[in-house]
């Protein structure tokens, strides 16, 4: 099984969208209510290739490379959470999304949660997949910073392989194809030049001014699904339970033998769970498309 065989059932487009002046790589497929998939730190849209075919049967799917990530543009400033949110909403405006369901893994969950809090009219529902941003653990932050910088600043593909395997409970899920995709991205000159902008949230002072505190989480009013791997290397289960307790009415699902990419590692379990949650969220009320919104933010 490869990325392309996983995507082969889809009629899809892969293009670049001008999102507030930032060329943004976007994979789009399906029709219906918009669902936007957001990856984690130093990640890219291929994190969701095991999910798009199932979701595109019922939804208009958008998997994007976030600001400064993948093959999206890399403006030269630190990527703090408000910058990511601004970029996300600029993408919404550029492609005509008024309101979307957000699926956010790791950093993507942090960004999705902040968008849901600050712009509730733009977020229909929220999925937090091993979401970051609620704690500041120096050991975890150093592990992310060091492993990423080593893989980016060295040509040794084994360091990229090690960085990707760090995410998975079973190293086999870090397929060689994914390793090669990530290695190529890591060694794009613009990615190398901007890696410290991308890693700024691993600095304690920067993280503290961006962190999601219990009061922030309590402001999330959208239907919320929290999915967590019991072998998540970047956060223990109490982080997930604290999110669940802070977000009224949220649903918490713990995956056994799972690391930091539940949507990828256990796609056969995650996909129907997500689709059931989306169906319930839609039944609760959704208004998603509009025509003619002015782009540029």
From TrEMBL:
Pfam families: Abhydrolase_6 (PF12697). InterPro entries: AB_hydrolase_1, AB_hydrolase_fold, AB_hydrolase_sf. One of its GO terms (molecular function) is hydrolase activity. GO terms for cellular component: membrane. Its EC number is 3.7.1.14. The lineage of its organism: Bacteria, Bacillati, Actinomycetota, Actinomycetes, Streptosporangiales. Keywords: Hydrolase. This is 2-hydroxy-6-oxonona-2,4-dienedioate hydrolase. Residues 35-271 form the AB hydrolase-1 domain. SUPFAM superfamilies: alpha/beta-Hydrolases (SSF53474).
């Amino acid at each position: 099984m490869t990325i392309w065989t996983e995507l082969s059932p889809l009629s899809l487009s892969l293009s670049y969208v001008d999102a507030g002046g930032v060329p943004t790589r976007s994979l789009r497929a399906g029709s219906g209510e918009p669902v936007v998939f957001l990856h984690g730190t130093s990640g890219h849209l291929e994190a969701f290739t095991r999910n798009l075919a199932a979701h595109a049967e019922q939804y208009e799917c958008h998997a994007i490379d976030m600001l400064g990530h993948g093959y999206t543009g890399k403006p030269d400033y630190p990527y703090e959470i408000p910058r990511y949110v601004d970029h996300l909403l600029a993408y919404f405006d550029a492609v005509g999304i008024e309101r979307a369901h957000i699926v956010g893994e790791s950093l993507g969950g942090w960004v999705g949660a902040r968008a849901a809090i600050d712009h509730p009219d733009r977020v229909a529902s929220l999925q937090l997949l091993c979401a970051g941003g609620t704690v500041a653990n120096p050991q975890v932050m150093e592990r992310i910073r060091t492993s990423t910088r080593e893989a980016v600043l060295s040509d040794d593909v084994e360091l990229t392989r090690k960085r990707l395997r760090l995410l998975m409970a079973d190293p086999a899920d870090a397929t060689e194809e994914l390793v090669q995709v990530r290695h190529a991205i890591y060694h794009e000159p613009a990615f190398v030049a901007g890696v410290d902008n991308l890693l700024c949230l691993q600095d304690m002072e920067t993280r503290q001014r961006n962190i999601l505190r219990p009061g922030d989480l309590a402001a999330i009013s959208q239907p919320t699904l929290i999915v967590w791997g019991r072998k998540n290397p970047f956060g223990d289960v109490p982080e997930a339970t604290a999110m669940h307790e802070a977000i009224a009415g949220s649903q918490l699902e713990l995956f056994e033998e799972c690391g930091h990419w539940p949507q990828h590692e256990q796609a056969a379990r995650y996909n129907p769970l997500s689709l059931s949650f989306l169906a319930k969220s839609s039944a609760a009320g959704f208004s998603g498309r509009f025509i003619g919104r002015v782009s540029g933010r």
